[in-house]
Amino acid sequence: HIEELETHYPSQLSGGQKQRVALARALAPKPELLLLDEPFSALDRVLRIELAEKLKKLQKRIGIPLAFITHSLDEAFVLADRILILYRGEVQQFGAPEEIFYHPRNLHVAELAGLSNIFDDARVEEQVEKLVEGNNAGPKRTVLKSGEMRIAVNPLNLKEGDKVSWGIHPENITLLLPNSGSEDKDENVYSAYVHSITGKGPKKRIVLKLARHEKSLNAEVPAQFADALNLNTGDLCLVKMDMSKVVAF
């Protein structure tokens, strides 16, 4: 909707209005393909996402294929049906946004996908077949050794001893109290100490010092849940990682 801008001079337009006018001019000739090279880079994050959402709706309505170049993960996830990631001129990965987010192929893709918890010291300890009972009961999985931690992940086509990196998104970490019934020896449950708690909005970011690894872990939890746990700096808690949410590459 730019009809209200037809009597305005360029100097009278806001940044967002200028972007809308530029997009309208690009669409006017009815192109078979629309190529946009970081069109929202000069705008603040809120406005970028707002325009990206509008562009997505417009693109679906008019049916023009769109190639959108961006360094913003937020823009890519709002707009894209498929994402192609380039690093130093080479294709790193091509796939759906969910694939990029949960199954990055390498460190470059993982970092671009916002994976802030990355551990690059792991090796494959064992391949566990699906068992119904016993100490290794559970689905087929690969077990990694990282520091003094054993981490179960979805099956990897690797040999024992192979080096591998792993990580988990902060929002996929579950925090438990020490007396919650889960023990540190349980698979993918680890003792940790609260290093810091920040955030006053709907989510809180908690930095945790793992008892069995030298690196810290960032967790993002709903503020209501964090308040219910009543955790404070220095408190002991348990960190639980769902196997399906752990990323390995």
From TrEMBL:
Its EC number is 7.3.2.6. It is a peripheral membrane protein. Keywords: ATP-binding, Molybdenum, Nucleotide-binding, Transport. Pfam families: ABC_tran. One of its GO terms (cellular component) is plasma membrane. SUPFAM superfamilies: MOP-like, P-loop containing nucleoside triphosphate hydrolases. The complex is composed of two ATP-binding proteins (WtpC), two transmembrane proteins (WtpB) and a solute-binding protein (WtpA). It comes from Methanosarcina acetivorans. This is Molybdate/tungstate import ATP-binding protein WtpC. It is an enzyme of class 7 (translocase). It is found in: Cell membrane.
